[in-house]
Amino acid sequence: MIDKRLLSILVCPVSKAPVEYDTQKDELVCKASGLAYPVRDGIPVMLESEARQLTADEKLG
Question: With a threshold of 0.90, does the pTM exceed it?
Answer without folding.
Answer: yes
